[in-house]
Amino acid sequence: MTGYAQARAERDGWAVRISVKSVNHRFLDLKLRMPEGFDLYDLRLRQMVREKIHRGHVEVTVGVEPGKAAPIQVNRELVQAYLKAAEALRQETRAATDMDVVALLRLPGVITGVTTAVPETEEEQERLGCLLDGGLREALAKLDDMRRAEGRHLVEELRNRLVRIGGHVEQVRGLAATLRPAFSRRLDAKLKELLGGAGIDPARLAQEAAVLAERSDISEELDRLRSHLQQFGKLLDGAGELGKKLDFLLQEMHREANTMLSKTPGVESEALAITGLALEIKAEIEKLREQVQNIE
After folding, report:
1. Where residue 48 falls among pLDDT bands split at 50, 70, 90?
2. What is the pLDDT of residues 200-213, one digit of tens each?
3. How far apart are CA 129 and CA 40, in angstroms?
4. What's the rounded Cα separation, in Å, for the pair 221 and 234?
5. Burial of 126 by CB count in 10 Å (0-12 exposed, 13-18 middle, 19+ buried)?
6. CA distances (Å), 169 to each of 105, 158, 186, 221, in order?
7. Are 224 and 164 spatial neighbours (Cβ–Cβ below 8 Å)?
């Protein structure tokens, strides 16, 4: 699911800022951005994220403010070059301008060697590591709260779609029961056309209609669809990692809908109605598959 959270923590003169952003993704795709020189904390932070998030494109950005003053170096040769250029320009234009030291320091290349100081001893490194752990834990907790709120709205929408699919399934079941008489009418009309109006044995007609109806029987597909819908609802009531299980169920439901379409031939009103409903079921399943990508 999508979400964004950030946290800040301070200790022993150090300050860390951590932001976590997640968007929908079928698998876990984690990107961690750390300040230069702090790679020693990369694995421990990645492991913390993996323990909390199992699906989604996740970006973690870490900022660290040093606990002691970082060394600053001034490129004095470059400063002298800037001053000479400024003096030459002043003489050419006869401008009376005083040099501003702060503005001079802002010129490109004047200040060098500004880096975030990395803890030197193992004890200092561990203290900073614990601070990073706490900041990341807080950010992940905030992200989880946001994702849970979004999840509640998503589950409600998923349940509404399940109800619509279930209604279509029952409509198809009612129409499927009328297909055998429809096949009999079609066979009767076709045979009369071929035989020039000659009499047709009613028993033979019923037998052929039964064969066609058996080939087009979709009762098993309807039963499996109903079972999948019930299982889908039970999974939504549960906890844990649901995304992949729901995705698998939707693949099975899509397969049953395709089979229904392939086993419902003819142009009778009943068959056309079943085809329309089956297409509606497929459309709802596709929408469910898109939304399930948001579920971990």
Report:
1. very high
2. 666 665 565 556 65
3. 9
4. 20
5. exposed
6. 74, 17, 25, 10
7. no
pTM for the structure as a whole: 0.57
Model confidence band, residue 84 (pLDDT cutoffs 50, 70, 90): confident
Q: Please provide residue 83's backbone torsions phi and psi, each rounded to the nearest 5 degrees.
A: -65, -40
Which position has the token pair 């932001």? Answer: 19
Q: How many residues does the chain have?
A: 296
Spatial distance between the Cα atoms of 206 and 214, rounded to a whole number of angstroms: 12
Examine the pLDDT at 130 and tell me if it is beyond 80: yes
SS (H, E, C) the chain: CCEEEEEEEEECCEEEEEEEEEECCCCEEEEEECCCCCHHHHHHHHHHHHHHCCCEEEEEEEEEECCCCCCCEECHHHHHHHHHHHHHHHHHHCCCCCCCHHHHHCCCCCEECCCCCCCCCHHHHHHHHHHHHHHHHHHHHHHHHHHHHHHHHHHHHHHHHHHHHHHHHHHHHHHHCCHHHHHHHHHHHHHHHHHCCCCCCHHHHHHHHHHHHHHCCCHHHHHHHHHHHHHHHHHHHCCCCCHHHHHHHHHHHHHHHHHHHHCCCCCCHHHHHHHHHHHHHHHHHHHHHHHHCCCC
- What span, in angstroms and rounded, lies between the C-alpha atoms of 58 and 1? 10
Taking the CA atoms of the chain, what radius of gyration do you get in angstroms? 35
State the amino acid at position 202 in one-letter form. Answer: P
Give the relative orientation of helices 122-176 and 219-237 as an angle to the nearest 10 degrees: 150
